[in-house]
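hey so u asked for the seq, here:
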Amino acid sequence: MKVQIVINGKKRQLAENISLQTVMDENLAAGGRAVAELNERIIDKQAWNETMLKENDVLEIVAFMGGGSK
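ran it, structure tokens below
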């Protein structure tokens, strides 16, 4: 079965019983740093593996990038 969620404003179909950790791993570059906001609540990184996504969840992924101006 599939569940529909919204990731950064775009509807996505994902496997049922998928963890936030799996989605974050799939959406970040290796070693990337990010914050996950699920249904308007920041989820602590230690809880990503045990946080299961469900139908109609809204996930915002904010990735941090290095660099800056001179």
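The domain at 2-64 is CATH 3.10.20.30 (Ubiquitin-like (UB roll)). Residues 33 and 67 are 14 Å apart (CA to CA).
lmk if thats what u needed
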